[in-house]
């Protein structure tokens, strides 16, 4: 009975770990998207400024 309880606990911990890893991966992808958008916006803003100075 004890080994079943430990096995069940380990499975729950494993599932929690998988969920945490999935969340971390999604957060990292979201951060990458935000960084890309920020770079694109900065380049666009830079281009706008250089056109105005001409």
TrEMBL record:
Residues 1-11, 23-54 have a biased composition (Basic and acidic residues). Residues 1-54 are annotated as: Disordered. It comes from the Bacteria. This is YtxH domain-containing protein. It comes from Bhargavaea changchunensis.
